[in-house]
Amino acid sequence: MSEQMADNIVRIFDTTLRDGEQSPGASMTVEQKVVIARQLEKLGVDVIEAGFAASSEGDFESVARVCKEVKRPRVLSLARSQEGDITRALKAVEHAKNPGIHVFIATSDIHLKHKLRMSREQVLEAAVKAVSFAKKHMDYIEFSAEDASRSDPDFLIQVFKEVIRAGAKTINVPDTTGYAIPSEFGALMANLIERTAGGDRVTWSAHCHNDLGLAVANSLAAVHNGARQIECTINGIGERAGNTSLEEVVMALRTRKNYLDLDTGITTEQIYPTSRLVSQVTGIPVAINKPIVGDNAFAHEAGIHQDGVLKHKQTYEIMTPESVGITGNRLVMGKHSGRHAFDERLKHLGFNLSKDDMNRAFLRFKELADKKKNVYDEDIEAIVGEEILRVPGQPDRYELLYLNVNSSSDGIPAATIKMRVNGQEKMDYASGDGAVDACYKVITKITASQSQLVRYTVSAITGGTDAQGEVSCIIEDSGFRVSGQGAHTDIIMASALAYINALNKLEGRKHYRQLVEREGP
Fold it and tell me: Is the confidence at residue 464, as pLDDT, over 60?
């Protein structure tokens, strides 16, 4: 990997596998780290910090495996300024195509006094000794001054001058505790670059934490003032409040290139898939309102916004969802949605209604939107089915009349159900793996349904042991996917009601298709 990069290109150093894994609950297996490393290479990151080889056998193995798996990015192992750590790190990266070592030591007086119990002179000596030792075995050395944002700038300049002389190629300035303010951090970076002897021969890097929610802003301030590497993680995971979010800082540089005149080598269309992979592996969900990759990042509910974005996307979108790997924006239907968005959603669902029918459906939609937070496609389909497609006075095709379930630790769960189907009463019995399974098997027998259960979820509406439970299910048949809801203090009853509700909606969709095929839309 060539270290020569255009002056307006910012190198992306990803530390998801090291600092990101330090996020509580984010531990990853070796195999999971390898899978993520492959995706990081596909994403186009320049550097992968694969772990802290000296910290455990597992970390050593994961660094070694990642080194063998990826070809283009530089792969680093973190090491304290100790010979043992560096030796272990060197061993871990020996099979990398582009290996490197990342050496660090704290430089702030608070860390020197309370953590290291060392003087400034001792820290300077340890830093130079560590870089010199690593340089004997490895060409690429990055040096970090931990807690740089709370360190004396004059001491930082002294340390950086000496480690550059010892052979460091990248100098990292961490805001380890997320303490810095953007204007302050940018000024610090500019000061260090200008006053450090040999600073023009190295790449300057920023590693910012998000304790005050300023990690991305501080990183942008750093590159605006001369840094050309940003250290970050996917989804911003990491210690405490996390690290600089890769997706946010990359898209900020891409979107505001007109102001910063900087860019990265990231394949931005791989951002969303990478975000989802890391979320799945770590079990850490992405907040719905997270910039770039959150569910609401390209969602619009307000009627004015929906109308504007339908007419011209740039009215409310400064980047396209496709640019980060999302298939398109999403209009969230709710009480703030307007007639234009509702009509577009109807057409998207295949309903080309007359003006009068659309107005009737819109009034029902508004009534429903006042009662629930989000109105889903299945709700809209149900509105059309109930208000537009159903013959006036015609009841649901399926109606639950009676339910009895037997279940014990020693016996096989079984259910007996009586239903009204097209006005005729039918009763049947079935056993299953559980009470709900038995129930659904009986309903399937009675209705002769060919649908497949796609999803089944249960949530409590109220608290306490007598809480009313709400069941939602999604079924699929003949190219249609519909949802059903049921609420009851008995969760088995709620499950049956939800399934029957979905079956009735399915019949409505099938009826509409037949109507269109016969008479046209």
Answer: no
Measured CA to CA, the distance from residue 470 to residue 457 in angstroms comes to 8
Question: Phi/psi zone of residue 213: left (φ > 0), alpha (ψ -120 to 50 degrees), beta?
Answer: left
Q: Cα 216 vs. chain centroid, distance in angstroms?
A: 16
Query: Residue 409: what residue type?
Result: S
Q: Copy the structure tokens of residue 265.
A: 């080598």
Q: CB-based contacts of 280: which residues, under 8 Å, 6+ apart?
A: none
pLDDT at 450 over 70: yes
Residue 288 CB coordination number (10 Å): 10
* 446 within 8 A of 429, measured Cβ to Cβ: no
Contacts 24+ apart (CB under 8 A), 253-256: 253/10, 253/220, 253/223, 254/319, 254/323, 255/318, 255/319
Given pLDDT bands bounded at 50, 70 and 90, which one contains residue 309? very low
Q: Residues near 86 by Cβ (< 8 Å), separated by ≥ 6? A: 79, 101, 103, 130, 133, 134
Buried b / exposed e across 230-242, counting CB within 10 Å, b at 16+?
A: bbbbbbbbbbeeb
The helix (run of H) or strand (run of E) holding residue 514 is helix 491-519
Q: What are phi and psi of 321, to 5 degrees?
A: -60, -35
347 CB contacts (<8 Å, ≥6 apart)? none
Q: Measure the CA–CA gap between 305 and 297, rounded to whole angstroms.
A: 13
Which run of H or of E encompasses 91?
Answer: helix 83-92
Buried b (16+ CB within 10 A) or exposed e, 273-283: bbbbbbbebbe
301 in helix, strand or coil? coil
d(CA 400, CA 413): 20
Instruction: Reply yes or no on whether the pLDDT at 251 is more than 50.
Output: yes
Question: Strand pairing of 452-460 and 424-431?
Answer: unpaired
DSSP H helices, 370-490, are 377-384, 435-447
180-239 pLDDT per residue, tens: 999 999 999 999 999 999 999 999 999 999 999 999 999 999 999 999 999 999 999 998
Instruction: Provide mean pLDDT across the span 85-93.
Output: 97
